Input
Amino acid sequence: MENKAKISVFGAGKMGTGIALQFAVTGFPVKLLAFDVREQQTSAGVIEDNLKLLAENGLVDVVGIGTRPSHGMRKGVVVNIEQTVQSIRGAIEDAELMAGCEINSVYVGIAGGHIAGINSHGVIAVKGGEVGQRDVERALDAARAVAIPADREVIHILPQEYIVDNQRGIADPLGMAGVRLEVKVHIVTGAVTSAQNIVRSCHRSELEVSDIALESLASAKAVLTEEERELGVALVDIGGGTTDIAVLSMNGVAVSSSLKVAGNYFDEMIARYVRRQHGVVIGQVTAENVKIQIGQVYPRDEERSMNVKGRDFKTGMPKVITLTSTEIFEVLRRPARMITDEVLAVLEQTSPELVSDISENGITLTGGCSQIWGMDLLIAERTGIGCVLADDPDACTAYGAGKSLAWINHMQEGPINIARKRAMRG
Output
């Protein structure tokens, strides 16, 4: 939950504040650069590996890290390109210096409240009685033929399952005999301008963007086993700017959602309460320290307190007040409930069969703000499903950064469209 970067195994993690951008640098052998761009801090990690080995087993090694103060992002979108560029450049310089290499090309992870997911399906007649690559491509083309607003673009088309002549649950239909091929997909879209501003920030940092990937998929790869992703599980990633929720089954994404309520919103609620109730103005860093030290979103027998220094709202003079965990609990109940409401909404969009599987396998919590006391208990109580906190939730996005590159490329439909490729190259 601290606004302090943790670079471990695969790169930089998502902390309690801000939105993470993951970057991977291409080459042979591969050097991957993963870093966070958030409202508090930007972090970068250079990872080295062979592309073939990466695709096979995800074995990577960190060879360089970099951390710089970050500004210019809010709730997953760039609000100041120049500040974002400075943060990116600083973190990259530190990482390059340690790794002894130059970073030129990156894969960009994207998150934020503008991200949305919809389910679709496509059906085609198989030519020749055997499913070939062209048949798979035609089925995916049929599935993506949905109305997308002009201000949004497709980030991923993730196959959930293929159906050949009513035989369901097929992960790879190539070579199978049949006359009818159907595919169910999850289409992830994002705001065109948000993606463009991230790409422009990279370009102005002298980085070429190879592709854009959904950040929550990296978290899923890091904290969920292949068996869990196959059988059915829910992932709740509570970061700084947004809470990202994904239901995974058959090694694909069934339902996804993003909510603009997370660590930053908790901090804002604490700062507003202190000003209104105590007449004291405190900054975001102080509010976050309160959240970390005595924050809770579920009843707790132990009463805790801490002294907080701020500025008197009327006189402007320094003033010290004492806050209790009971006070902060009352402040954070509402935003915590908003998160659990969104989890319930996602489960309602999920098929009853998959919800049953999730009930057995549970809900996994990750992200910096997931560590606030009682969040797992609250989600478990409201959903009736067991909820566990991932190991090292701060850095789990980074753990999956290298692994997810091959996984996402395997899941999604082909290369990104030519128009977006050209936009990324500038």
In short: Residues 1-43, 47-56, 413-423 have pLDDT under 50 and may be disordered. The first helix runs from residue 51 to 57. DSSP finds 13 helices and 22 strands in the chain. The two ends are 36 Å apart (CA to CA).
